[in-house]
Automatic annotation (TrEMBL):
This is Nucleotidyltransferase. Pfam families: AbiEii (PF08843). It comes from Niastella vici.
């Protein structure tokens, strides 16, 4: 958080907003995420940003491309990119951190699955977002932000799991969720896109899993 705060206060990055898994985790707290993804809707001078980072931050690795800078700062992966697609909703400021809306995050997550589909965390994030919005709303956001994408293919990409890299773990907060549970929810959402799923509290879920069946009362006198 200290690094995010510092980057947010740096005038060089005033047009950049926090996106991705860390933005979502800060909003809903479903999993741990330390990578910092900062996107801007306009182009920027990559060499200038790269030099500024190298001169003012503890950078151990850095790469600059057209409209993109990728680096390690204090051991944290930081990506700065020009993502030139319109914001669906206004940027929110939470504790001084500029964060894109849940609708924008949702659209970007669906776009990532549609174009890649290898990152388990993207499917996990959509699984969690379905506890706040029905899939039809997420698809509408995706269509608004990325009108060039075939929305039917975007929806069907949620059912294509063969390319997921399960060797990269997801660190949940409060509970562990089996992949079969995630896959079942995604399939149900595709079949019933108007449904908003109910989150089972971790303690309740654990009690349900461990509650013995047909338990008999012990014999003996009541004390």
């Amino acid at each position: 958080m200290d690094l995010i705060d510092r980057l947010m206060k740096d005038d060089k990055f005033s047009s950049f907003n926090l996106v991705g898994g860390t933005a979502l985790a800060l909003k809903i707290g479903h999993r741990k995420s330390i990578d910092i993804d900062l996107f801007t809707t306009s182009g920027f001078n990559s060499p200038e940003i790269s030099n500024h980072l190298s001169e003012n931050y503890n950078v151990t690795r850095i790469q600059a491309i057209n409209n993109g800078v990728f680096c390690l700062v204090d051991g944290v992966k930081v990506d700065l990119l020009a993502h030139q697609y319109p914001l669906i909703e206004d940027v929110e400021i939470i504790d001084g951190i500029r964060i894109i809306s849940l609708m924008d995050i949702s659209a970007m997550k669906l776009n990532a699955i549609y174009n890649n589909g290898t990152r388990l965390k993207d499917f996990v994030d959509v699984y969690t977002l379905l506890e706040s919005f029905p899939l039809k709303d997420l698809l509408a956001a995706s269509e608004q932000k990325y009108p060039q994408n075939n929305i039917s293919m975007v929806r069907n990409a949620l059912l294509h799991h063969e390319d997921i890299d399960f060797n990269v773990p997801v660190d949940f907060i409060g509970q562990d969720i089996k992949w079969s549970v995630i896959a079942d929810r995604l399939r149900e959402a595709v079949n019933n896109p108007q449904k908003v799923f109910i989150k089972i509290p971790p303690l309740t879920q654990k009690l349900m899993e461990t509650k013995p069946r047909n338990r008999q009362k012990p014999k003996g006198p009541r004390l």
